[in-house]
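Minutes, project check-in
Item: structure for the 161-residue chain
Input as provided by the requester:
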Amino acid sequence: MTDQTLCPVARAETVVGDRWTVLILRELFMRMHRFEEIQAQTGGTPQMITTRLKKLEADGLVKRRVYSKRPLRHEYQLTEKGEAFYPVILALRAWGETWCKSPREGRAVNYTHLTCGKPAGLGPMCESCGEVLRRESLSAQQAPKYRMEREARWETFKASR
């Protein structure tokens, strides 16, 4: 009964507190909007992804839009509430890069801060100019190894269909 607590962490956890939801949000932030793209990159079953997307929509973080009527297909966009989750994704990324990987592996994604044109670092503030990082002011460059990993997941997904 988290609605009976004032604890914001407990309440937020009911919305985004599982692995699949966070991975779906990661994909939406990476501008993957179609169901198949999200499924391929998260590894979730169709039922798992459908359930989480419906919950994200009901919770106001995602809206869906028809992009094909025959067959009926939707793509998913972040709402203002969903976009507001971006600092949390940046914090998870920073923590994962710092504590869950070897430094010799290198960063999966490198961001350039468009405002100053220099490396943004891990956030939440630009390591080059000190400005607070916002999604719209960042340009992402996937490391070659990470790009190949994502491409391999996509190819494996397509081959399994």
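Outcome recorded: The mean pLDDT is 95.
No further action items on this chain.
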